[in-house]
Fold:
Amino acid sequence: MRINKFLAEQGVASRRGADELIRSGRVKIGGRTAGLGDDVSFEDEVTLDGKLLSHKVQFEYYLLNKPKGYVCTVKDEKERKTVLDLLPQGAGRVFPVGRLDYDTEGLLILTNDGDLSFRLTSPKSEIPKTYLVRIGGTVTQQQLNRLRAGVEIDKGVVSKKCKINVVETNQSYTKLHVTLTEGKNREIRKMFAVIGKDVEFLKRIRLGDLTVSGLDRGACRKLSAKEVYYLKNL
Structure:
C-alpha cells in the first residue's frame, strides 16, 4: 500500500494532505524518512512526528449542516471556531471533506476515510453539488445563460458548464439553485461577480442525492451504511 493511502486510512489527512506531510519529512517508515512513492506493509512501523501509527483504523462518517462562522479546517491559526467543534462528544479524529467558506452554510461530510475523501473531492469524479444562492435584485436569462456556459472567474481560470434554475424572484432579491461538478475556491461568488451580482446567502443543499433535509443548522449525524455505500459508488 502506498504511504499516502496508508496515512489517509489512519484519518491523519486526505491523500493530498498526506503528501504534504511526507514532503515535509514528518513521516518515517522503519526509522527512515518516507518518500512520496514508498509502499508500506503490515510489518512496517510508520510514525508521524515520532508517534507510532496503528495499521488498524475504524472509519467514521458524519453529515454536518454547517452554519456560518465556522472554518472547514482541523485547526485555525486565527483561533476561529472550526467545524470539528460541532461534532458530538466521543467522535473520533475526522477531517472535513473539501471546504465551505466561513460565510457559507450547508452540507459537509467529515470522515477519516481518505479514499472516500479523495473520491468526493477529485475533479475527475464530477460529483454534482447543488447550492441555494440568493443575490440582490433580478437577473436576466442572458446573464444566466452566460453563467451556465462558463465564465472566467480568475485570470485564465474558467468555470465549467453548470445548471442554474431560478427558485424565487422579485425586485429585492432572486433565489437560485446552482449545480456544479467542480469546487474551485469561492467559485459561485466569483461567477456572480462577473455579472455584477453580490451573493447575499450561500448554502450547499445537496451532494449527489444526499441532502441536509431534516438536519438543523449546526447539527450533525452519522451517515448510515447505505449512505456511505452510495457515496463510495457515486
